[in-house]
Amino acid sequence: MAEAPIPQDMPTLSPVGSPPNLDPNAVTDNPQQASPAGMSDLELQVKLKQLELEQMKLKLEADELERQRAHELALRQLENTNANSAPHAIASTPIFNVERAVKLIPSFSEADVESFFVTFERIASVNHWPSDKYAAILQARLTGKALRVFTELPLDQCQNYDTLKAALLTAYAVVPEVYRKRFRSVTKSPSETFCEYAFKLSTHFRRWMVQRKCVR
Question: Label partner for 191 (CA 20 to 30 A): which of 45, 72, 152, 175?
Answer without folding.
Answer: 175
